[in-house]
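User: For a benchmark we're assembling, each entry needs the component sequences followed by a predicted structure for the full assembly. Here are entry 17's components. Please fill in the structure.
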Amino acid sequence: MAAGAEGVPGLCGAAEGSETPGTPPSPAAERPRVRRQRGRFLVWSPGAARALRERHRVWGALVGTPPRRGPRGGAAAGPRLPLQLRPEEARALRESGGATVEPVDEAEAEPSGGGAGGGARAALATPLSRAERRSRVFRALWGRGLHLTRGGKFGGDFLVYPGPPAQFHACAVAQCPRSSRAQPLGALLAAARLCACVRKALLLCAAPPEGAPSCTAITWRADLT
Amino acid sequence: MEAAAGPGGSGVCPAPGDTDPGQGSSAAGTGPGAQGSWSGAAGGNWITAHPTFTEMMSLDVSDSTQVYAAFLVYLDLLEGRNWHEVQPVGVAELQLVCLHARAKEQEGLQVMVPVPAHILISHERLREILKKASLPPEDPDTLLSVTLAIVETDSTIVYYKMTDGFVMLDPPDDTEDEDNKQWRKKRKKLFK
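Assistant: Structure for entry 17:
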């Protein structure tokens, strides 16, 4: 587990051997293929799933047949393919050239860039949707070399790891609230207390289109119990 | 035990309509908050007469509810925890009374931002508080930070540090001691 209450001023070094946005994208033939099917982003190839996790730090979730229980299920135990990616993971890979996203049939439209239609003025006036906020924050944190997985179990949008989830505990729970929306302070307290109990920091993240990404960490003052 | 074992403070805040800093002080002889709400936030003769309270009010940057919260935090740090120094500071840009405090003489100043627990607050506002209330760090690599002192209607205070940037927590100081403590508790329960 990563040690030390370090503040990382906005940037963490990229993991050794992992690809980050900004590196030249792999040739199309070598890129892992992600299939868009019924609104879900699925990776069926074991090699592609492994490449996404080991080279691109995109972890997704294995959603195949549930593991079998009992002695006969020992050999087949464990989660299985396909690997399902969240929309923000698929979008980040597509935009960085790390993977190709292919619709299974013509009915599967490419995901739009987010935000309302109706021209630039309408786009500026409309607050970002939750999906768009998540996507931007994912891109900002992932681009800094961090590993992110689903954060629903801890009431957040992402779990943030300093290294591969197989080797590190998550160090933070990231939320992507609407920046201008006022919420009861009690809701923030509840989230912060949950994080304190599981030894993680609460991160409030924002990545507005017109500004730099920002991260506010909330940690309990154990010395002032 | 609950209050001492972990972060205190309730996760449920009363509706904003329940608290009205504009109401008059409570009846003579009753302490502040005696009616279970902050309607008497500035009530109680000894509080309104306290020189530090009057100093905070004279800064004229915030309403009586936030000043009352600041005063409770002031008392908690200075009298309850015996901190070396606690000074109220008015931040007009934020319309808040903050505290610049030092736990021990040799330690650096910390910024405490008292807020009542029942308020509504946005991420934008938290960032604004962080940027405008924090002191410039001595080390340029250190992240900006302040401590939110969240004051409940029963005067319970819980403290959370707010930092600009990505923070990782310390691991437990002594894992073996923690395991032993948990084992002792469990054993005590089993053999009751």
